[in-house]
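Deviations from the work plan: none for this task. Representative record:
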Amino acid sequence: MTKKIDTTRLIRSQGPLVTLLVMCAVAACWFPEFRTYDNMANIFKQVSMTGLISIGMTFVILSGGIDLSVGSIAAVASVIAARLSGGVGLFAVLVPIIAGITIGAANGVLITRAKIPPFIATLSMMLGARGLAFIMADKGGAPVGADKTAWLSQISKADLLGVPWPAIIFVLALVVAILVARYTPFGRSVYAIGGNEEAAVMMGLNVSRNKMLVYMICGGLAGVAGLLLTSRVNSGQPTAAAGWELIAIAAVVIGGTALTGGVGKMSHTLYGVLILGIIRNVINLYGKLDYWYIDLITGILLLAVVLLQTRIAGKQAVKP
Amino acid sequence: MTSQLANEDYLLKMKGISKSFPGVKALQQVDFCVKPGEAHALMGENGAGKSTLVKVLTGIHQRDNGEIVFDGNSISPANAAQAQHAGISTIYQELNLIPDLSVAENVFIGREPRKMGFIDWKTVETLAKDILDKMGLEDVDVGEPFTRQSVAVQQMVAIARAVSISARLLVMDEPTSSLSEKEVGILFDVIRALKKKNMSVIFISHKLDEVFEICDRATILRDGRLVGEYPMQDLTKLKMISLMIGRDAESVLERKREAADGLGDRQAVMAATGLSRGRKTREVSIDVKTGEILGVAGLLGSGRTELARIVFGDHKQESGQIKVNDKPVSMKSPGDAIRLGFGFCSEDRKEEGIFPNMSVMDNMTMAILPKLSKAGVLSQKAQREVAETYISKMRIATSGPDQLIKELSGGNQQKVLLARWLCKNPVLMILDEPTRGIDVGGKSEIESIITDLADKGVAILMISSELEELIRSCDRIAVLSEGKKVGELNAKEISEDGIMHMMAHGHDAREDVHDE
Amino acid sequence: MTSKPDAPAVETGMLKPIKATEVFRKYESMFFFVVLIILNAFITPEFLEWGTLRNTLVQVFPVMMVALGMTMVISSGGIDISVGSIMAISGATTARLYVTGVSSLGLEPVGLAPALACGVAAACMCGFLNGILIAKCKIQPIIVTLVVMIAGRGLAQIILGELSTSLLFTSFADFGSLRIGGVIPVQMLIVVVIVAAMIFVVKKTNFAKRVEAIGDNRRAARLVGINTVWVTVGVYTLCGLLCSIAGNMEAARISVVNVGSLGLLVELDAIAAVAIGGTAFSGGKARIMGTVFGAIVVQLVTIIVNMNNIPDKYSLLFKAVIVIIALWTQRKK
């Protein structure tokens, strides 16, 4: 059997990387500041939170689902972290993450047991969890507690050999996620479920349990993101992290993962995350555009990539 | 009879299985036994309960009553995984593997060999290659995505998966429906090899020839009850059919065919020349005349459905021309075809025909809403009148126009869908497998509706995979193979042999293409 | 998806047993409505006074309008979570044209009627765009409307331009507090007319039949000649239209257009209203009166929260739970 060069596959596999490199080149020519190490470190630091969520979102989308509640989960975690920051340090780190996992598990239960479609279950959770964040924040927002937990705010400010900690956490999580997706039965099950859920059931895979896990991982990573957010802004704001679901979905899709599930690469989500990060960075460097434009550009980019994907899928369908 | 035999003689013993669904007794006290190393046919018409029985066995449904003894142990699989674990594997009609994963992964997913907790991809691929080699599929690249393989290879991969989990019993539900003759041959070789290894196969197929070729014994079901269990040598095709349908197979009406020359000078309602689209439709020319039933024969995948879709405007042709009453037309959507007076019944009633949660009345009048309304406001009275007329005219068994269509039987649903177009007085009806999944009584009723229509002057293009049905009803039959029209038979020439010969000719042509 | 057995379909002509759960499903919104009215009558002080009732109604109208649009969208098998942002865009357009005009284009402030017309047109455009992206470009509704939901508020801000986020517009607000015959709020009239119109549309028109058909089986709808693209576009445009009415009504009520808060989180209320109203989320028959009562039920929950000294922030949580329960009973069917 001869292996032909498959253009659609090539676009899917190399498109995001090429786009990323072109953007870097353009940005580097346009803004001299872009080229500095500090700026690079800054980009990584900025994308680390939405990047963590994008990792979880990649699992969710690969499994054929969607999670709109990630931003609200991050807000809940952020508020919890801030409120607990006055006490034992370990709790201030663990409890927000556990809260994220718990909300993710609730998503999973609604989707696998109550059989509510993922977008509507997580939409309810997106709004419900936001309410929860408000309830827990007391009056407006919770500031990070007394000086004995100054280390909490240090997480996002300190670095290791010049590499900011949030970036290290993000990259570590990504490496683990790549290994999980490629080399563990769970990871492969996620692909199988997204590719053909009915078949996955027939093959004896535990679809419900794996889906539960997917949403729990996504919730947990959103929790970590919320923790980093608190560390960064020194307070837990219930209104924070709004719209992160869009950024995460966009990053995953721009990275080439199909919204229909089953197709995509965890490692490529990094490209999507960085592409969006550089757009944000460039808008900041340019300095004349409102932050509204970031949402606008992210949204348009997402729609454009999905459009491209449906076109490709359509072409494949015509010529089997 | 069977109960007197000792348990050890059987690999599988299902005894007194009953299963009900709301409003339906799908299985009543059914016994079913399979010996080690045999291929056992499970036969019955649609709705006889075959699939339900298999689903009870494989853990997808839970039985209400009865006992399942497998390999000496009583089992009650609660899901597919448990059945698989016990040693029962199923290969379904619609292939149930994961399209985007590699061949090797499809064989091993769920139980991949691991090294230090991580999946060992090298071993996965070597083992998969090994298994496929043994089945005579040396040239399959196991690293390639599953979707890139031919249907036959996909089927083999499914079997390879079953073999590799050391299944004792393999359930095959219509495994040959999308295979060419040659591929069926390969599949049967594999089944024979499995039998030698003392593996048992439950074989479900509508194709009697195949059943007689490969199976040792047959169990026949009818209306959810056991008819009997027979060694193959005690059965003939005719006997099997009469056992399945519960009456003589002879009672089918034969349409009086118009003399071939009588049709010759009628005008073609629709004439298409050189239609092409992708690989599925290549340079097909076809025409249908007033009052004529043109049959389209061909195997699944021969491009017959695709042809119908192009003629109905659902797919756009890449080249070629369609003329209606001698005037060239361009159709961008089914809506355009409908405005030209075409009607279409899809082969997939559930997915493409009915609006399940809407009433019989709404289903019937969906294509003539503008006719029943003024300025976009619909007259329910007019709607009801149309529905009542056709319910009585076509003898549709329903409690009334307001009943939901999903509550009707398959045959009655199909009648509603036919009525949907009849009330529009079509000039051309395109019918894709109009009798699929309909019981024998319903079938002959639908066939007679179709012939009546033709007698009233409607041109009909009918696709069917049942040759007998085509031979019974059609005035002319066009034969397709691999997207090409390989021949046409007029009224005088129509015969089973003739059609088969042409299909076979198509096969030869296909091999040539492969070798290119 | 649990597949049906290959057994013969249910015997025709069989009498369907009427079950309590079925009755409950059919009148679910009424049930909630009555329970909440009674509950409120007991626990909410002054609930049964005309002033309170009137305020309740005036507050519920915008949600009701949006929910009616959402009902049609859901009936067609889709979803629209951009409704709140479309409200904001519509309100912003009206406010900009009415109060400041567009100086860069040399446009002076215009009268209320043309400003409103433009606000309505802008919302319809958004709905139209949603529809095109969903039906023509075949992108999932949730993705398209999520983008519009998040990017839309930015757009509204851009439209409002150099204006501060809040602005007062008096003569419009005067209209908003108009009482017909001194008692009946003018909004009531608008809402009654629109609800009546929607009931007519759903019960009597080909359009609604086609929407229902698309929601029930999109492939089959195309094959009976329904122009699925334009019907879908029509549905989302209609939803946009109703959002614009909601947006301007709300702006008139509170005398302010604030793009950050106008219509914020209304999608939850609207989806909750539709879910309680009994329209199936998998598509199918639109239940207008169900949605009307559903919207009131949602508002009653808000009132219980507001008037009984329960912090407002709990209402989000309550409503999320209501949506989930309503959907869960739907799936149980």
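Chain C has one domain: 51-332.
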